[in-house]
Amino acid sequence: MSTTLQTGLAISARGVKKSFGAVVAAADIDLDIPHGQKLSLIGSNGAGKTTFVNMITGFIKPDAGTILLHDEDITGLEPRRITRMGVARSFQIPQLYKDLTVLDNMLVAVASQHGNLSFWRPAQNAAAIERAQELLARFDLSKHAERVVSELPGGVRKLLDIAMALTKQPKLLLLDEPTSGVSTDEKFPMMDTIMRALEAEAVTVLFVEHDMDIVERYADRVVAFYSGRIIADDTPAAALTAPDVRRYVTGTLR
Question: Alpha-carbon distance 107 to 150, whole Å?
């Protein structure tokens, strides 16, 4: 089931600030993310990119400023409410039920979408199974449907985690280092699969990534953070060659 791509802004942040004691994690952040864009956040550890993502998802409340999701103010709302409004997140370490099969993981995700958290009968109905199988096919996971998750390699687990996030039909998907822990041979085919699936679902993508090859190849736009501030916001080619990015992020300018 594909969705129609919206127009306008998925996220609009204005004057967003966050400090932890003397550490400034976000300093007057202004950032607009159009619907359908694939935007990568880059920066060294502690630069502020994860804090920004956590403020979008409600895990951290900003000290000041506003964050709009599809023109609705979500500043400081609880994570569950923001999720219901159309935001999904996939973490660096996949959040999976390792003793269940791939298909059963998908069915549990579908069940949670509808508020049915019975693990004994996880959405065993025709509509749920159809949606689960559709997403498994989209992520090239159908061949693994009856395998137990604990048997799967890291790249396949990542794909399953992202597929589960899409059962909620989000408008915005946040990916935390999608290629972390994935072998060099796996990472490009895996990302090809992810991006094809997300385009088919008409999802806006915001991904945090340290692998500049992945950033350059898959992002439409790159936003670089340093010390709680945005130091570059441009196309991958322009952002990755900016002096401040080379100095503070990639370390290629001394």
Answer: 17
